[in-house]
Amino acid sequence: MSRKIALLTVLLVAVAGAWLYWQTTSSGPPKLRTVAIEQRDLRIAVTASGTLEPDQIVEVSSLTAGTIVQFGRDIDHADKFADVGSRVTEGSLLVQIDSGLFQVAQQKAEAALRLAAAELGRLESQLQQAQRDLQRAERLRDTNSQSDFDKSRTAYDMASAEREVGRARLEQARAEAQQAKINLHRTTIRSPIDGVIIDRRANLGQNVGSSTSSGLFLIAKDLSQMRVRATVSEADIGKIYIDQPVEFYVDAYRDQTFVGRVRKILLNARIHNNVVNYDVLVGIDNYDARLLPHMTANLSFEIVRRENAQLVLTEALQWWPEEKLIDPHSDSVRRPLALDEKEELSEGDVAVVWAPAGDGQVRPIEVRIGIDDGVHTEVVADELRDGMPIVVGTTKRTRLARIIPKARGG
Asked: What confidence score (pLDDT) does residue 162 get?
């Protein structure tokens, strides 16, 4: 009796195991993977990087050689010298170069000018005397010899030529005196505009000259009006146009988006390692003075924007269900060629997305394709609603692996 009970128990365990194995290894209908329709603004843009710079920059240099002996004062802080961040007005002192030698040069030039004027006066007197002698020789021409008349005529011509030389020397001396005055004036360097100093490249006691490669000061006229000099590749430059809206951010304020508009597209392309790039100037407002020169900007040039667009994952347009998954009560639809990889879907094409129909089945919805950003695609159909689930694929039921116990011993 006990033997029959044991045999029956073994049989029940075997049946239960077989049933469990069948349950865990059988594959039911695939599970649908869905994503919800999103209704929001879709913006397509070209990205680039650039550098902030003032709208107008003036580089102040020295036009004469000398030693810096003084800097101008900060107009807002009289006890400080003009430096980076100082506000300056047109005509205010920036740099004073040692003017001692230039003062001496001007004095010498003015003395040479007076000497040339006196010399011209002497030559004028000689010419007048030569003219009187010639007039006398003409009156006595009948009684005097021809040689006496010729001598008088030659003396007059020579005196006239020497006067012209004297006039030229006076003009030369006058020009040299003017040049000496200008050189002396250039030892005092003043601001050419109202603005803010954004860079100072000189120190007290430094020797500067007209051949200095860089200026002494950089002055920005108005930091409330700035621009971004952006670098755009040749592949994207055709999408950039004047007055195009631009958004950008800087690392200092990554949580804030700034806006601007394309002001100018420069044609002097730069080529580096066979890569062609163009400079694009983007005008921006900086009334709160938060943006500083030389900050790096990450820009987004808006190409097109759609307000309240209905968006699906592009993946949803690339999926077509097996025949057994299609709800038999659904209207038949034509399979887009793009799913056969014969062509790509583009704006204006008709495509199909699939919505769950219950019991693991799906039904088709014809849509018209709009723009896409590479991840989401705009679709247009009266039936679509915000939050509506759309199928993007299926998930097969996972089989449980059989565990085979390892044999003991050897």
From this structure: 93
94 and 194 housed in the same domain: yes
**Which residues are within 8 A (CB) of 62 and not within 5 positions of it... i.e. 6 or more apart?**
95, 97, 186, 189, 208, 209, 210, 212, 216
Q: Are strands 389-395 and 31-36 parallel, antiparallel or unpaired?
A: antiparallel
Task: Please indicate, yes or no, whether residues 241 and 181 belong to a single structural domain of this protein.
Answer: no
Which among 165, 198, 197 is positioned nearest to 94, based on CA atoms? 197
H or E element: which one contains 149? helix 146-186
Residues 243 and 359 reside in one and the same domain: no
Instruction: Assess whether 198 and 174 both reside in one domain.
Output: no
Provide the residue range defining the domain that includes 286. 45-54+222-306
Least confident of 90-104, 244-258, 268-282, 331-345: 331-345
Dump pLDDT digits (tens) for 294-329. Answer: 999 999 999 998 999 999 999 999 899 988 888 888
> What is the Cα–Cα distance from 364 to 316, expressed in whole angstroms?
12
What's residue 175's pLDDT? 96
What do you get for the CA distance between the two ends of the chain, in Å? 37
| Amino acid letter, residue 163 | R
Q: Looking at 171, 186, 201, which one is the last position of a domain? A: 186
**How do beta strands 296-313 and 93-97 pair?**
unpaired
Cα–Cα distance for residue pair 261/149, rounded to 1 Å? 86
How many domains in the chain?
4
| Residue 190, token pair as written in the block | 């003043």
